[in-house]
Fold this protein.
Amino acid sequence: MNRHERRRQKKNNKLQQTVNPDLVEGIKQHANKNFKKAEALYNKVLLSEPVNYEALRHLGILKQDLKEYEKAYNYFMKAIQINPNGFQALSNIATIHMQNKNYELAYKCLKKSFEINSMYVPTINNLAGYYHKINDAKNAIKFSLKSIEIQPSSALARNQYAKALVINNQPEEAIDLFKKLNEEYPDNNDFKVNLSSVYREVGEFDKANQISTEGFKKDYKNVSYLLGYTKDKKNKLDDSHIDYYDNLLENENMSYDDRAIICHSFFEYFKNKKDYKKAGSYLVKGNDAQYSFKEFDMDLEKKFFERLKIIFSEKRDFSSKEKIKKKIPIFVCGMPRSGTTLCEQILSSHSQITGAGELNYLAEVSNINRVLQPSDSQIENFEATLGDKLNLKTARKNYLEKLAMRDKGDSTYICDKMPHNFVFIGFIKLILPEAKIIYCKRDPLDNCFSLYSHKFIELSHQYSYNQKILARYYKLHEDLMKFWFEHYSDDIFELDNEKLVNNQESVSKELIDFCELSWEKECLEFHKTKRQVRTASIEQVRQPMNKKSIGAWKKYEDHIQGLVSSFK
């Protein structure tokens, strides 16, 4: 802490009262989860000291622990009114915004808290968590390391660092750290769930399932273990388990997140038990809850797609003098759940291809920064990039530099498997003409049902939780792809999922031939390839090719008439 920070800290401290013994005892009771005693003690403090910043803040933390988020937020705001420079309360408010997925507001609070006190570890941890949420791998590592530098023994800091390692494609290092945390803190459920998640990403399903099963059996009321437990076909729910969660679902005040997780868990469970009627009912109920939190603006998306067609109908003159011969990008794109992960798994089984997973690099270097629902100003930034040759040259350079860092070897090709890169096909052809583009296509109902039946992280694919909106989005994507094929048909390989499943070897050979590589039989045994997979197809690509998902929607036809009627 430098001289200015110390002076500012001293000034802030003057605003805070002498520590009240009831406050100290309240914090102690709170730590031991004696919430009623803690609340009574905090309120006792406020009776004698109505403007006690810490008493108000800790009441907010208590209400947050009880999932009474609105009350928590109000207490934190009262604390800020008493002490506008209360960096602790600002950090607390940010966690409420994070809970509500208001990431921009969360960042503003964290930024201000960090400016007031750059050494406050909870804020630094929360910044690391924020960057993890938005998948900013570089900053997630940066802030988690900063937290560890200040408090090397902090379990929360080490946990954030391990999570940052996961999104930086270092799963083995993350596993080692999570295992140590679990040894040191055997009762911490978050550490167990995090270890289970990364085991699942690297294909260690038995280990992942063991953690979920043991956790659920120890405390079936902990929703964190429910999905992992129900996905394991060997597990069984008792009537008491089902009744408990059904009763929770009756509570109108339950968070949409918990409601969606419970419903999706029961969908998975009854699907595995082949009770498709019950499974379908929970699927619809969970998706309705998810969509109600934030609706998808189809008009905004349609406007963006129409703008793309106008932009790339014009002839654009740009070519790079330098042609790369190593680490050439292969873009695997298409609708999510169209077979993009399977395609990348086949490709990365080749000795000359590295699979880098879903990368947001094109959105970053193009200055649009997002592939779904970009604002008018973001589209303007994109057009400004396209309109300047220096900007295009910089975008090419920056993309290739970022991509090269994902390969530890000397591969000829590196896969960028961001499905929504299908919106950038014109941009790819402009700045990376040597790149290979593979468009994955699947039967519309199979594709849409696969989307509808998966719960994605955060709010990343909100269009997929409403049947009518999902159908409209799929058709919008088809229309844009028709435009791209009209302009670049010779440069796009269309990988039809059904053809691949029915003719694995011949279609796989065509795929490798398109990449101008010699055939390797390992591409047929893609399920044996050991690499990190961070998509919804995490389990499917660990299995040999099969036809299980073709026509799967028919088992739920009564529940998905909104989808079926849109394509019939």
